[in-house]
Specification:
Shape of chain A: globular
Order of helices and strands of chain B: EEEHEEHEHHHHEHEHEEHHHEE
Structural class of chain B: alpha/beta
Distance between the termini of chain A: 26 Å
Number of strands of chain A: 12
Number of strands of chain B: 12
Order of helices and strands of chain A: EEEHEEHEHHHHHEHEHEEHHEE
Helix content of chain A: 25-40%
Strand order of the largest sheet of chain B: 6-7-8-3-9-10-12-11
Oligomer: heterodimer
Mean pLDDT of chain A: 90
Number of helices of chain B: 11
Mean pLDDT of chain B: 90
Structural class of chain A: alpha/beta
Amino acid sequence: MSGGSLLKVLGLTINYYTLEGVVKAVRNASLCVNRGESICIVGESGSGKSTLGLAISLSLPRNAVAEGSIIYEGVDLLKLNPLERQKYRGEISMVFQDPATTFSPLFTIGEHLIDILRHRFRVSRDEAVVRARELLRKVQLPDQDRVLRAYPHELSGGMLQRAAIAAALATDPKVLVADEPTTMLDVTTQSQILELIKVLKRELDLTLLFITHNLGIASEVCNRTAVMYAGVIVEEGSTDEVLLNPLHPYTAKLVKAVPSLTKRRERLSHIPGMLPDLRNPPAGCPFAERCEFTTHYFDYSPVKHVEAGPGRRVACILYSGVKA
Amino acid sequence: MSALLEVRELVKYFPVKSGLFGRTVGYVKAVDGVSFKVHENTVFSLVGESGSGKTTTLKCILKLIEPTSGEILLEGRNVLKLRRREVKWFRRNVQAVFQNPFLSLNPRMKVKDLIVESIKTHADMTDAEVLRRVNDLLAMVGLPSTLANQYPPSLSGGQAQRVAIARALSIEPKLLLLDEPTSALDVSVQAQILNLLVELKERLKLTYVLVTHDLSVVGYLSDYVAVMYLGRIMEVGSIDEVFNDPRHPYTQALLSSIPEPDPNARKLRNKLALPGEPPSPINPPRGCRLSSRCLYASSDCVIEEPDLIKVSDSHYVRCIRASENHLLGASS
């Protein structure tokens, strides 16, 4: 199943230049994604998880400036010229949160898919139609001919998200970046879509980068998880390890803040305070202000990642004495 | 124990109009015969997916829309037949907190004025008393009094939701209606608000009616829960009975669809998928409304819609197989 690293993010820093100042969305993030694995990036709003996903799928908006490197199969994606970038855009596809904004309301689902297929593979229109139908079958949409002729508003949220997944798969990608693909959906539909993504990952041998705020989804979909807070990857490890035995104080709090059906009446732990202002984030640990273990907050130098076991990294001064 | 709120056979149809003259061609049966009782100092939840009619039910209770038929009783008085003076009594006792605080709080009014306005409408107090009350309320929801002079857009989501709660509680209502109160918030903030709601309920002896699609929130807050599907209550009862021993296939599917964060609990659970998507509420399926998607549907299910069948004194299910369904439960 796995076969060495496919994608490596090294010291990635992403800043958004906005009218209100420079927003430091991702700071010094490093992440290694192995071929064929599914990795989750978990975080709350403003953690930089979506920005990281956009960077990897080469879809950052123009006002974003990325430094560092994203190495995909030996090539640094950040150093590509626009023409080369086109090629890699197809290798790394993305599914977004709101399927209604994925498609243009002016074109049918078929037109979208056929455009992608013709552009990518230079095939005839007829050939593209055949392939588009096949894609829709792959995402388990019934009555493919009707869906091809349908405009986005004519499909339900769940069907539209399936179509969006089909569009993402149209370029025959190796990596699928899914940014909260089920957040807008009802729970029963959500569970259908998650199942579909798992099946497709297996059948098409995809590498999956799943972005979510929902720890339950991380637990069900991914074997590895990276937790982000205020632009920093604070912890990384196998999903079960991270959830059962969280090392970083932020992760520990987050896990206890989720109401669970199995532990219904237990009082939830909450995190006092608020996210730091990302225009001027603290130089040290971003969580220090809200952390119960903080000692000398103002003395902190930038936190380093500590290896805390096999495949386990944590960015916390509490573990600086722990041996790998 | 008498009920604080009672809903009897509530029905709300929205006409579907079409054509040049806006002829009514059908009805969206948003709520189709919903009845329940809410006792004092308990939390009653309406849960369901989009289109189940849970929010429409809430809007009817709040008198925001007029139901097609049915009765809503607050302390035994029918709130649909109130005179103008009595409406004020009703508003005083029933307040609501909505999903998005940035939409429910006027962005051009200071936090202080938002709360003052609500107090002054209902109570006869001097300005000094009102101001003291505002400070008390802010402290009660865990906000610093310095926030009183800020405008809602400068608040975080969690702070704004606290202001909305403070405003709702400013006139000491008996019943608080919560419409997806934490759906717009991050988990860590959601936990803060949920804890606050539990604390306030105990301290002020409040009664909540909670509407949400999030079953884990329901599990955390509620005493009683009603599961809705296409305008109907499919299963209703005490939270322990419904969640530990769900009898309706729809409840079972809902409970097993929630992604479980705890890896140990996840492995114990068996998933029960619900195929397809909800049918149109304009033309719901014949017989049991779930029959078009139910894994256990038989020919009996499409003949006639079942009534709510009693499982125990505090547990009712609308399914003809209620007595045998418990083997498949999502409980653990």
